[in-house]
Amino acid sequence: MTGNYTLRALNPFMPGVGLQPPELAGRMKEIELMDGMVARTKLARLDRGLILYGLRGIGKTVLLLHMKGIADRQHMATFKIEATKNAERAYDELFRGLPLAIARIGKPDLRQRLMNAFSSVESISFEFLGVKALAERSAASYVTESYKLQLLIERMCEELKKDNLGLYLFIDELQEMASEPLGDLITMQHEMGQENLPFYIIGAGLPDLPGVLAKSRSYAERLFEYRHIGRLSQEDTEDGFQKPAKANGRPFDDASLEKLVNLSKGYPYFIQAYGAAAWNESDSNPIHADAVTRGIPEALHMLDEGLYISRWQRSTPAGRAYLRFMAEYDEGPISTSLIASSFQKPGTASTARAALMELGLIYSPEHGKVAFSIPGMGEFIRRVEPAEDQTYDERR
Ligand SMILES: Nc1ncnc2c1ncn2[C@@H]1O[C@H](COP(=O)(O)OP(=O)(O)O)[C@@H](O)[C@H]1O
Ligand SMILES: [Mg+2]
């Protein structure tokens, strides 16, 4: 028994938002891309920024963090923030991130030069420059912030460039960013590039992120390398299960591995859930297929709790009706007019759609169509049939 408890405690799998997986399977191309960017920075060569986009639970956040680790190890100035719909908070976080990035710089003389650059900008009176007056007249009252941010980033990059280093700004959930700071960031990526300065935005977000950026600034398309982060190949999925299992002394046998690959469909969040459950259910070494089968309810429970239920609860009754209709059509893109025709008042459907998009539950893969942002959401709705008019918790 004791042995079993120890083995259970060794379970390497664990689903969770942004949790570093025991094995970051696949993603070699994206990692090489980051290695390349950093190598070029060290040779004083310029690059474009980088945008990672894909469904929820596909592994964008952990990839973003892994990339930050690469830049950190090569002594680049880095910081990471999560985008927010509140413009003021977004600017605050950007201003707080910059001194943090400076503080983490190892070379004392460079750190000092960066600090000097920082305080020289801080001490400039923007009122004197007439910016304040401009700000008061302008509808967007973020002119001062935007000037300051740009000047700060420019001065910092000038210093970093002297040492063949660069400033890497990692932004998660970038599709959520308030429009003023988002526009500023894209403009900065553009202008720093024109000035030959090493400033890079590495953004991650939902599948419609490229469209959100293009809408903010028409030239955004040219400024970034865009990478779709998708499901893992069969081989990478196998690695995602087998490498951590082997490393922890209890591999999967062939039949259990095949079953896990099929259940997970190459979705990283699913790999962690089904891997964790099978490990817990197994009383043999290697792990057999029957443990995978016994683990299915626990895995589904982890997926429901981690991915679906809270999002279902956050949507309105009309939103839930919208989602339920979508679920009847499985996971693929579905025509918005078809959904609207199932509503008595078409206006209700479009309001519900807008709210669901705002919540990041659905996105528009092409004009006139919508799809779930979370893999398996349709299957969840069909399987659990959560109530539309009350919270799911109350019904359980
Ligand atoms: N390449 C991968 N291999 C195995 N597991 C992964 C991989 N990428 C992510 N995961 C796991 O999947 C889950 C979701 O990852 P996360 O980065 O939060 O996704 P996203 O940001 O796209 O929603 C986490 O539990 C994480 O450990
Ligand atoms: Mg994420």
TrEMBL record:
Any Pfam family: AAA_16
Domain named Orc1-like AAA ATPase: residues: 23-186
Stored SUPFAM superfamilies: P-loop containing nucleoside triphosphate hydrolases
UniProt protein name: Orc1-like AAA ATPase domain-containing protein
Organism the protein comes from: Bifidobacterium hapali
